[in-house]
Amino acid sequence: MPLDSCQGLVRSRAPYAVSEAQSPGRLYPEPPPVYRSEYQRDRDRIIHCSAFRRLEYKTQVFVNHVGDMFRTRLTHSLEVAQIARTLARALGLNEDLTEAIALAHDLGHTPFGHAGQHALNGCMREYGGFEHNLQSLRIVDCLEQRYADFEGLNLTFETREGILKHCPRAKAPELGALGQRFLLGKQPSLEAQIANIADEIAYNNHDIDDGLRSGMLELEPLCALRLFQEKHSEVVSRYLGLPKKRIVYEVIRRMIGHQVAALIEASQANIAALSPNSVEDVRNAGRPLIAFGEDMHEKHLELGRFLRQHLYQHYRVRRMSAKAACIIQELFETFMQDPELLPPEAQAKAMAQGEEDPKMHRARTIADYIAGMTDRYAILEYRRVLSPADLT
Ligand code: MG
Predict the structure, then answer these.
(1) How far does residue 79's CA lie from ligand 1's centre (Å)?
(2) φ/ψ (deg, to 5) at 317
(3) ∠ at Cα 31 (142, 99), nearest 5°?
(4) CA distance to 68, 121, 250, 322, 383, per residue, from 118 (Å)
(5) CA dist 250 to 78, 148, 339, Å?
(6) What kind and span of H or E run contains 10?
(7) CB 244 within 8 A of CB 235
(8) What's the CA-to-centroid distance between 213 and ligand 1, angstroms?
(9) Which residue among 4, 155, 272, 312 has the highest number of C-beta atoms inside a 10 angstrom radius?
(10) Is the pTM of this model over 0.85?
(11) Could you give the angle at the alpha carbon of 145 between the alpha carbons of 360 and 153, nearest 5°?
């Protein structure tokens, strides 16, 4: 069993866990950290970057200011990291790497959640499109400008690989070693696979919680879902007269626990069947090894379908999405027509001459500026730039 040592801290890991000793490392070579692993350093750089702080004010499902009790992208990312670390530790994988990927996975999201990404992708149709996974990578590779020696955060290959969950085939050749896996049909590390499913477990469960709290979801239709129903009857039969709020929490914590345990067991069986000896074996497995068994997979899909139908398409969410699309489109079009309306830093970037076609370059810079906005900044900027009533 290979050991990763970090100044006396020795952890034993499975042979198919990512190990920094075999890592292709960072694009810009740096001396190794003294008291941390390379992946702890990645995690710490992610936590200190400004895109991470802005997650606090970005929509998950509910616009940030509609209620202080709902998840934001920041609290969502923390929940994903918590679930992902449990999975990584139980499976003998690299917990530091898993945590770094989980915390960074949503950095590239626009304001206003998926509605914002959809609108910005529409605006960017003629200019190469907009996709939040690619944007997350763009943030950690070049948009964060904090360090003297390099652009971006100079993260390790494995953290960048995990952040790039999807990539259109047409884009893959531009991404060098990172794009290869999409061209060759390879899998990412198990740590990246964990962060991916932990994301789904986290949002399915917390969106039920937020949906109920917002009044957009009702308990009764949720009880038609197998996983919810099982846990709900367990809780109400065990705790007679428990207030609804506590019933909901007890149900949700059991659902998360059950899904995590089921995922560990099914993944252990998948790993045992293939018996990989290295990360390379994992990459060549032809399918993800971190996966639910058939029954839990079905229950998991059922939750997702329910949320799409009853929450994400709820008329109140759709109204927010329609307004968000309007804000993003109008800001984009206005800045494209007159880049001099951009604040100085974004303006200098948009007007900079490079090798790229100037219009393509301007569009990408404006997309970066808009994607980096928090919900409230986007609303404010819309008022400042486009509202005739705000003549200040
Ligand atoms: Mg997410």
Answers:
(1) 10
(2) -70, -40
(3) 60
(4) 25, 5, 35, 11, 21
(5) 20, 49, 52
(6) strand 9-12
(7) no
(8) 20
(9) 155
(10) yes
(11) 105
